[in-house]
């Protein structure tokens, strides 16, 4: 089985990223080809809130733990909201603290938010991941109106979103060889 790291980039209370990430994890495990590792960035560092902005602070021990976890991944699926046309600040911070651990690793993304914002976030995340030496192998899965389709901790996906995620997971698995 190949090792897929699903990174939940949302760290805010009441976050949409948890149900969306659990949906991605469920679909990956249902394929039977993945040993999935759901990484919650909230587990790696304390939060600092400045007004409306919530930031992830990585201390040295957290940074090393994050790098060791990333080093085990054979493929990565980023899951993030797309605030103001970017990806989450927590995910940006986590990417800043990666060295060569993810070089050559294929990645895909699942983004949720407003349509225009998700497209811009997908481009930014692709650039940031490429700067780490990662390989984009799948089209991003874009989810409009995700927050309105959450019941308890379950995300109700559409058939189109399920197909998009399956295509991304298949592309990631093929890229591993």
UniProtKB/TrEMBL annotation:
Pfam family, one: FMN_red
Species per Swiss-Prot/TrEMBL record: Mycetocola reblochoni
Entry protein name: NADPH-dependent FMN reductase-like domain-containing protein
Highest taxon of the lineage: Bacteria
NADPH-dependent FMN reductase-like domain residues: 3-143
A GO term, aspect molecular function: oxidoreductase activity
